[in-house]
Write a structure and sequence with these properties.
Elements (H helix, E strand, L loop, with lengths): L11 H16 L10 H41 L1
Helix pairs in contact: 1-2
């Protein structure tokens, strides 16, 4: 199962792949079960994974900055 594929949640690159995959599924009603759309599905998975890794890195960096600020405030209060 994939994450939410709403367009506002993803990059332009991933949205293009998602649209191609949806198009492939709609054009190949039975072929999608035989693996006709698998290449697009793999591309989408890689794209979504890269987006997730980027978000994780940004969130981690923000958390570290916040942690440093809190520690600095604690030092200032103590001293």
């Amino acid at each position: 199962m994939h994450t939410d594929l709403s367009p506002h949640l993803h990059s332009t690159e991933c949205n293009l792949i998602i649209e191609e995959l949806k198009k492939c599924h709609s054009e190949n009603k039975f072929g999608k079960f035989l693996g006709i759309c698998n290449d697009l599905d793999r591309q989408m998975i890689v794209c979504l994974r890269n987006e997730r890794k980027t978000r994780q890195k940004l969130n981690r960096d923000k958390a570290l900055e916040k942690q440093k600020r809190v520690q600095q405030l604690m030092k200032e209060k103590q001293g």
